[in-house]
Amino acid sequence: MRASKFGKGGQFIPWIHIEDLAYSIVHIGNNFEQFKGKTINAASPNSITYDTLLNNLAKLRGRKACIIPVP
Questions:
Q1: Residues with pLDDT less than 50, the chain
Q2: Residues 40, 43, 44, CA angle at the centre, nearest 5°?
Q3: Is the entire prediction scored with pTM above 0.85?
Q4: By the 8 A CB rule, do 67 and 3 touch?
Q5: What's the domain range around 30?
Q6: What are residue 66's DSSP bridge partners?
């Protein structure tokens, strides 16, 4: 897998699993009056670094990560 990382890759990046996002959308839709006019932030409570995210994505695809740093 070829990817670019910005800087050293140690910066934290927000993420959310697709099932959690789908559940959140359904929950908000079912309780619309409660969320009406409010800002909603959907992200995992556990942050990961950009390097970790890219390496995990490569592992899931069964490939080695070829990460090219971009200044």
A1: none
A2: 145
A3: no
A4: yes
A5: 2-70
A6: 2
